[in-house]
Amino acid sequence: MLLPYLETCDEAGTDEAGRGCLAGPVTAAAVILPEGFNDPILTDSKQLSEKKREALRPVIEAGAVTFGVCHVLPEEIDQINILNASFLAMHRSLDQLKNRPKMILVDGNRFTPYPNIDHQCIIKGDGKYLHIAAASVLAKTYRDSYMEKIHLEYPMYNWKKNKGYPTQEHREAIREFGLSPYHRKSFRQLPEQLKMEL
């Protein structure tokens, strides 16, 4: 069972989705939950079916004290690299919170400090704490929705299904059609680009 960190609503949980994708934004969410908030199916978004994630999204939005979601688009990812873009998305989602937390709990092992608020990195935190799990669900569902919309512009990549991740189908479409404006140009898009000369 996931527990709110220190059982207080003075903390925000934050997480991102889409870091390993070839196309589309990296998306982050930040969530402050009220004391006593609980949901029997809320856990790390990667452990949930798409149907359960979509069902949880309005529950989290309605139940949260406050939440924020931010996309950082491929152009900015290419300029500052994906790690910095992930931190930037988290910072921008935290900027949207109506209540200022006293502590930020971050899923993962690295984070750029947010101005004037302490943080703690929690490895696999989305499977340990409710507010990080809630952030993971919002980040994933908002990003999936974004990818489904741009799928309509470029259906040949089948982003509605693969959400921009490096599936074989996605890579084969890149070989056939080249890169779209939504692809991350700084990423190695095809396996042959991974070969290193020693």
From TrEMBL:
Lineage, opening ranks: Bacteria, Pseudomonadati, Bacteroidota, Flavobacteriia, Flavobacteriales
Entries under PROSITE patterns matching the protein: RNASE_H_2
Cofactor annotation remark: Manganese or magnesium. Binds 1 divalent metal ion per monomer in the absence of substrate. May bind a second metal ion after substrate binding.
Known catalytic reactions: Endonucleolytic cleavage to 5'-phosphomonoester
Cellular compartments annotated: Cytoplasm
Origin: domain of life: Bacteria
Name of this protein: Ribonuclease HII
Cofactor(s) annotated in UniProt: Mn(2+); Mg(2+)
